[in-house]
């Protein structure tokens, strides 16, 4: 029986019609093989556009549908839905992308129209070979894994747990809290960071539906949406949690002091057995085995001797925990840009150049200086401070993007200096002041009235080359003031580098583990930057907070809640549909060579020993086609990507209906 194909060419307003003669494409398509009807329409994705398809399927008995419009990423589901509503199997549909692949990238109307015809022809040839497919259904395990216990992860975990579902919250540091726990005041309201975060940390640590796995890291992930099996390494704390009361005597008695490069950002000290900060959740300390005298030299054991409950266990080993979950939320946050990469700013070489996180710890009443703003000697109060914006951000040599929070936290720092050292002069060296947020611009105006000097221009260098009288011991900040067009040379006692935020150094490893992707600057990629910012291309894996890109606390919290809402939506459905686009092995002809087993990036192919053949687990297979291409016997078929379908598509793109070669334009 010959097929009856309907072709629909979308104008997308002027997005496509501005560059492609859509009427001409539709007329031309009506002569393609098996085409029953070809139409053009202003907005195919509108309900009227979809109804057009549905009516033709019913009235003209269409057996295949092609829509030439935007990217399938955008609207394939929309048109598959229209087919299904009219009673046609949704996989008997094909989309030709004549917007991103044609109208948006070509200038010449004739060439664009010719290419649109070629893509429509390819789709028409291909769709004739489509097979009806049925999606599979999988039950959803109601438990969720949240990776990262910063404010975004905590929010996500609490939302799901409060809705009555179990959560495993995995945090690699000894305590949850993330960067927010390090901050002093938070812009623009200047709330005390710990005061607003600690209640949430406590709730997350004591919630009956949350299993907190701190000092832990995910090692392996198997499975698919609804049914993930996750292997987690719970590192040995060398403290038995059931016995420890968190009294802190062990830390007090420990004789080994170590620079705290994590929580105190290198500005303060901790002991070898330590709790990162007083409000840490959980409250149990951890032994840093690399610095513990007992682990180094086999003697000491002061902590064990003084522990009143016998909670210290030097023999404790890492524990491997396996959990089954239906969904995953990745909220692994950010790293601070390392300003050593910009040697002309002197960080690491000039003692009184500080990073922003160091300054956060310095101004914190619970921090290493007890909240006093002092030079590296620990006593001298600076009389002048330069705050250098955009360190590592908005700079093609490092990160082209804006880190979004640095302008605001630099203004916050200026305010805190005025509050604590009213006599000190504060200079903000900025490129532009960016304050898009509720109450942010008002905060900036408040700062303008507090007497901060604003100098517009990127700092060229910070040196200790003080030459003039009265400059002894000062740092010299050199910048071009672009508002007045002159060089500025400002001697100051202290420089704070407002370093940008960047993706975690291990972001690509974490992404690989969970089968998601990173952008070129290593942030986790969302499914759609505007319309689906917390989902990823891997079903059941969501992202939240700064792991997705730079953002402030309100936006991180909002994303944590949004990711939780998406997960709850899936949990309450009870089951999910899984795409039937997957690989199928012809077991009769499989030689059992196992090449596909090792190549499959999703571990979706098992070797069946009894039969000596390989078999695809359809729930794990993502239809990527690696095995199809690699099979030396050619016995693996990709459903929806069969050889016939691909060859027909190529034929369609190369041959026009009258047998002449189509002119193709290189994109
Ligand atoms: C100097 C400075 C000052 C700032 N001041 C403000 C302010 O005043 N107001 C404001 O709104 N915003 C401020 N911000 C921004 C704020 O820090 C972030 O918006 C917020 O911390 C983002 O939270 P998060 O949970 O996404 O990430 P993070 O805080 O980075 O938390 C991520 C967590 O994930 C854990 N983790 C990472 N990788 C793994 C892994 N593989 N496995 C398990 N756990 C992992 C980390 O240990 C961490 O606990 C400031 C930022 C900086 C740099």
What does this structure look like?
This protein is α/β, with parallel strands linked by helices and 667 residues long. It has 5 domains: 5-133 and 645-654, Rossmann fold; 146-226 and 328-333 and 504-575, 3-Layer(bba) Sandwich (FAD/NAD(P)-binding domain), CATH 3.50.50; 249-306, no CATH class; 336-501, FAD/NAD(P)-binding domain (3-Layer(bba) Sandwich); 583-639, Alpha-Beta Plaits, CATH 3.30.70. The chain contains 19 helices and 34 strands. The strands form 12 sheets. Strands 10-7-6-18-29 form a 5-stranded parallel sheet, with helices on one face. Strands 20-27-21-22-23 form a 5-stranded parallel sheet. The longest helix has 21 residues, at 553-573. It is globular, with a radius of gyration of 30 Å. The site of flavin-adenine dinucleotide has 38 residues, from helix 7, strand 19, helix 12, helix 13 and helix 16.
